[in-house]
Amino acid sequence: MAEKRILVALDYDNKAQAFALINQLDPTMCRLKIGKEMFTLFGPQFVKEVQEKGFDVFLDLKFHDIPNTVAKAVRAAAELGVWMVNVHASGGLAMMKAAKDILEPYGEKAPMLIGVTVLTSMSDEELPLIGINKTADEQVQHLAALAYQAGLDGVVCSAQEAESLKSTLGDDFKLITPGIRPIGSAVGDQHRIMTPEKALKAGSDYLVIGRPITKAPDPLEALTSIHYSINPTE
Ligand SMILES: O=c1ccn([C@@H]2O[C@H](COP(=O)(O)O)[C@@H](O)[C@H]2O)c(=O)[nH]1
């Protein structure tokens, strides 16, 4: 079985709906992402329940605070046994280093620590409104280099920046890309998008996919079809 590249974003407001999907999924085909909505509603207990079903969990809480606070939140995520956790790279070098350092005692069992660069919902036009006079691509390159310097395992970016990031930061630095839209799916609030096949070719390591799966008439069919489109030989 090939590496599990698909991270399904569980953005539901109730557990029953989430488990209706989870119970149909095979943990050898995908990993699951728990974000702010479900974590705020159902807390660490929900993370444990998902892990008990055999799934690796990406805890997508995008911590952004002073170094001491973020580091302790990252440690709490490690105690939960999640596979991946993230912090905002714009929180700065000291914050990211503190998050990295606190994971040292966990050794091989530490979650992957990922920096969020520029949200995939943001376009070049929106950045000046928050005081950033760069293109999204330039800002992603800047924040990814900072995350790399802090010793993080990779970044969240859009697949549109993947090719250049792989060439500057190398293959081992993981690229986690939301904003994945199979042909024909609704774009919604995302701006920097790409299809699953093109994203992998561009250098994405993991594809975060929510609504194209969870809002599909048949979510399992939607996931399976994306899976085989990127793993044609299975
Ligand atoms: O830059 C980012 C960072 C995180 N996300 C999250 O990914 C999923 C995407 O869901 P879709 O329904 O496929 O748009 C969602 O949970 C976001 O919170 C992101 O989109 N962009």
Automatic annotation (TrEMBL):
Origin superkingdom: Bacteria
Pathway annotation from the record: Pyrimidine metabolism; UMP biosynthesis via de novo pathway; UMP from orotate: step 2/2
Catalytic reaction equation(s): orotidine 5'-phosphate + H(+) = UMP + CO2
Pfam families: OMPdecase
PROSITE patterns hit by this protein: OMPDECASE
E.C. numbers: 4.1.1.23
InterPro entries xrefs: Aldolase_TIM, OMPdecase, OMPdecase_AS, OMPdecase_bac, OMPdeCOase_dom, RibuloseP-bd_barrel
Gene Ontology CC annotations of this record: cytosol
Quaternary structure and interacting proteins, as annotated: Homodimer.
UniProt KW keywords: Decarboxylase, Lyase, Pyrimidine biosynthesis
Role according to the record: Catalyzes the decarboxylation of orotidine 5'-monophosphate (OMP) to uridine 5'-monophosphate (UMP).
A GO biological process held by the record: 'de novo' UMP biosynthetic process
Gene transcribed to yield this protein: pyrF
Name recorded for this polypeptide: Orotidine 5'-phosphate decarboxylase
Family: Belongs to the OMP decarboxylase family. Type 1 subfamily.
UniProt domain Orotidine 5'-phosphate decarboxylase: residue ranges: 5-226
